[in-house]
User: Which sequence fits this backbone?
């Protein structure tokens, strides 16, 4: 009798979790995210890269083709943030100018992905994404900082810029189904860009998902 009661309790506990792994599950997820740029290069001229962060968000949909295989489509946006690159050299008609370059940067893009999934209530996964990103740089300026107390613009009239780049992104993470249909996931990913100023970004989103089953 005790064994039967234990088995029944396990079935009740695992029933909602089993549904999450069902083939055909369709999930919509929303996530705020933090992006770390380990080596953001100067937008003009030459110089060393700096590290910095940007904040944004992600929205995506996932469909389980099999119990262990999901396909995804997602879009992301990163709000404008200012980056400064000290020790940057910019060529001009008057010769090379050494100073600090600053720019306001924002980014958005679309990604297609696939992931291999294991687990029930707690799920872990690995996968990858490919897509493209549009990067916008505004308010570019090159500053003379020879007097640290009063930096002045060199007056180069640098224009706004934008660039489109291919994105390749391995990912891994963990997901927890905390209620029927609802889940939380942490899905860190490394984005490698073929173009733009920043070539590598580490994206750290924490998402809330809602799933429909048997679709």
Assistant:
């Amino acid at each position: 009798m005790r064994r039967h009661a234990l088995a029944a309790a396990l079935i009740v506990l695992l029933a909602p979790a089993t549904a999450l792994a069902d083939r055909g599950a369709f999930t919509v997820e929303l996530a705020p995210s933090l992006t770390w740029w380990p080596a953001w290069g100067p937008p003009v001229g030459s110089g060393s890269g700096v590290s910095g962060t940007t904040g944004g968000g992600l929205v995506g949909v996932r469909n389980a083709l099999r119990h262990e295989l999901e396909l995804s489509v997602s879009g992301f946006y990163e709000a404008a943030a200012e980056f400064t690159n000290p020790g940057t050299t910019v060529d001009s008609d008057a010769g090379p100018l050494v100073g600090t370059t600053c720019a306001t940067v924002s980014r958005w893009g679309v990604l297609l992905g696939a992931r291999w999934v294991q687990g029930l209530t707690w799920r872990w996964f690995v996968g990858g994404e490919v897509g493209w990103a549009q990067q916008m740089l505004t308010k570019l300026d090159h500053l003379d900082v020879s007097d640290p107390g009063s930096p002045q613009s060199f007056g180069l009239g640098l224009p706004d810029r934008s660039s489109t780049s291919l994105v390749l992104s391995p990912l891994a993470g963990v997901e927890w189904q905390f209620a029927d249909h609802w889940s939380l996931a942490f899905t860190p990913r490394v984005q490698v860009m073929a173009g733009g100023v920043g070539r590598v970004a580490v994206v750290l989103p924490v998402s809330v998902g809602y799933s429909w089953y048997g679709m």
